## 1
Amino acid sequence: MSQPGRRRLAHQRFIRTRSLEFASCHRQDAAVPQTSSFFHHLLLAPVLTSLACCVGACRKPPPVPTEKLLVTTSLMAPGLAELEDDEGSDRTVFRGDVLISIRRIPNFRWKGAMEGKMTQREGEVIEASRTPADGPSYVFASDMTEMDVPQASWMCAKMGNPVIFNTPCDRSIRRISAPGGRFIAWLTCVENNCPVAELSDGTVTSTTIPALSSLRLVTFGSQSVVLAWSRWVRSSDWTGGNLILMLASPPLRRIGEIPMDEVDARDPVQVLNRLGTLEILDDGVRYKGKRAMIERQTGKELSATAFDERYWVTPEGKFVGQK
């Protein structure tokens, strides 16, 4: 065989081998025709160009290091500061909340108020905490399950290892299990922008919420929504809070903000006080209360206006408000 013929044959074999590797990467049967046509070679050129992309696509991201922790399975579950049978649930936990188990107590019977409603439980109790820096509380094992949760130190590293109140991130990070194997991680803070992160398919995306005091994952229809309670201070005499709504898309995407409580004491004679209660509904929230003017010297209510506000999230993930 002549030199050009040998080169052409070797080129055909190279193309056929690489094409089959590419097809195998995507788990498809492939057959590459053997031909010496120059135009067929040109048609196969894009296959060679795509080989590098195939190699990257076939590589899975490294596994996320996990630890076995408690995850709340009930929509809402009692959390007790003290193990007393008539104490109210002042540390209520919600579906997806992650806790660290400390010890188990065989049997306990409890009846008390939880979020304004009388509730009761009986069975094994677990002493647990949201973070190593938090004080312990008591939850019922029937409201919990054990699950592999992203390691605190790994999540903190992905969030830049923030330090809040001189406490290392891995001792103050809070985590929530979300649908689809995702996780939300966050830290509380008073004034700074508090870090919030979402883990999905091995990728962590981050955002911040100013003065974040609490965070909860809820479901409105088909949408998973993160509710974030944020505080604000405009002056020593003017403070308040907002409820920020974010779609757990991923990544987390802010879609709306609801004004909550407000105290405006800048006037030397009277103080504005807006206060209400929040109700979580199937498709949104309801904030109901009153806006009152209080005489500073006597504490007497000078005037009051009731409000009843509804906010919801559409199936398309849009935030809608009606006051």
## 2
Amino acid sequence: MRSLTQFLLIVILLSPAKALFAQEVVNKGDVTIHVRITPIAIYGTTLIDIYKRSDKVEIVYARHDSTRFSEVREDTAYINASKNRNYSDSSQTAKLRKILKRYYVYDTTKVTIDLKKDTAYNKILQLMAQTSKKELETSKVGQRFVLDGFGFGSTIVTDKGTKTIGVRTPMPDSHPIIYNFLEETRSRLKSRLRH
């Protein structure tokens, strides 16, 4: 039951993103990747937006820092929605979460990469863009039992279309392309932020 709830949470979180990013237009050869990483605990969401344009990539990294609860408590929509709270009603939970997100505060960092100098990162971006949704989402090790972890949701936009991906805790043996993409992105963020 818990894995079904986690799956539904990923679907709920990605549904608005798909509609929003489906309208995004990119030129031939360009790639836009929007990533949402959500831990089991609702707080601590990380957002990563990657914009590949020609030979440059801009990575915008935003980590949930805090929530302005004093403002949430004054929001009439939140007050009304939480009066008769039913935790088993996923639509009500999604509505409350949507209201809460308006009050999230993110710590944001931007990094620019020259792909002429960093061809390895260009390759992993192209691999994410060209690999089918089914192949990215299918675990290479079959059924896994994950006690703790995080949800990985991504919308990938190319000139050929948009695909939305959702997986639970990608690891090197289960989802190698997604895992390598996350590790390569983390590595570039870490090295650029040190300088």
